[in-house]
């Protein structure tokens, strides 16, 4: 990875930039349009450094908390990523990746209730699970990890090009009293604590 940007910047940003530079002398408006498109793609895939706290479960994504609910005795916290947010996703806490599973599905808007049936990649770390969920436009999920990888809190685990939502399914020991965010709150991946860990 190039420092400061995720791999998607190269894939989606460089081609229109190169085409734009080549076309600008021949067709100014088209060339400049492609340059602007390429720069927007690079900006979208920015990857700033983050400083994780020493404890707690941090949010896996930048954005706004869209879901806090209980599922079979465990609490799920979901974060909707707007187009202006950083789309690199991070580990909520330390652990070892047990599996990375791609699940095909729909492509509903990530802020809607129907998005629970969307295409996703589930990263199971045993104690907790992170789901990278595609939206109506975002259909490019890029996990960085695989089974057996050891993670520290705030490590990069993947990115979603042009979308959309990332959830953390917390361990059973985490209760509502441990939750540190509310729906609608803006959060920062790898830094904002979404829940205290009673085990710490």
Automatic annotation (TrEMBL):
Q: Which residues cross the membrane?
A: 20-44
- Which GO molecular function terms does the record list? carboxy-lyase activity
**Does the entry feature the keyword Transmembrane, yes or no?**
yes
Q: What protein name applies here?
A: Protein sorting system archaetidylserine decarboxylase
GO BP: phospholipid biosynthetic process
| Keyword flag Transmembrane | yes
What keywords sit in the KW lines?
Answer: Cell membrane, Decarboxylase, Lipid biosynthesis, Lipid metabolism, Lyase, Membrane, Phospholipid biosynthesis, Phospholipid metabolism, Pyruvate, Transmembrane, Transmembrane helix, Zymogen
Instruction: Write down the Pfam families for this protein, in alphabetical order.
Output: PS_Dcarbxylase (PF02666)
Supply the source organism for this entry. Answer: Halolamina litorea
Superkingdom of the organism of origin: Archaea
Enumerate the residue ranges of region (Disordered). 92-116
